Amino acid sequence: MEELVAPIALESPNLALEDKSSTITEKAKRPAPREAGCRIEGFVRVKKVPGNLVISARSGAHSFDSSLMNMSHVITDFSFGKKITPRVMSDIKRILPYIGASHAKLNGKSYLTDPDDHANVTVEHYLQLVKTEVMRSTHQLIEEYEFTAHSSLVHALSIPVVKFHYEPSPMQVLVTENPKSFSHFITNVCAIIGGVFTVAGILDSILHNTMRLVKKVELGKNF
What we know:
Helix content is about 30%, strand content about 25%. By secondary structure, the protein is an alpha/beta fold.
């Protein structure tokens, strides 16, 4: 392991200014370790226009064999917009139970490739975003991005990469929470009670008329 992370000897200032050929540069590079991996964490600021986020392997000290590169990866957390706390998300789901279902569509998913079976494989993720704004009764504006994800494996023409192609929708969803007053509650209760009495009156009238008709039929048979 120490040989893999050993420091690279610094060049003299005179050699650094010289124009070196690509042959010398390639000879100075070491082959990249086959079983090495990495963990990527952070955020990227992007504009609200379609674009690509490409993750590839590059090194000034190592050379890469594209036929042996394995772009398998596991996505722990991938989302757009500001982080929403679990408490706020719980309050939002109280208003909209379905919201948040597509907030982190790729979380916890694994995408595995095997260079022995398929060499030079690039993993592409196509994401379509829709912005959702929730205006709460406290005049707090919450923004989140719902997105759909479609993943595929394609043959790489050069070095395999992991590509996230995102495409924001020109439309957005606005949800406003309007609290109902106590008078509205009283009106609904009165409407329910009135409806119950009305239905009860109709049923009583039907039952009364049916009983009268049955009695008339019985009296007709007796005579």
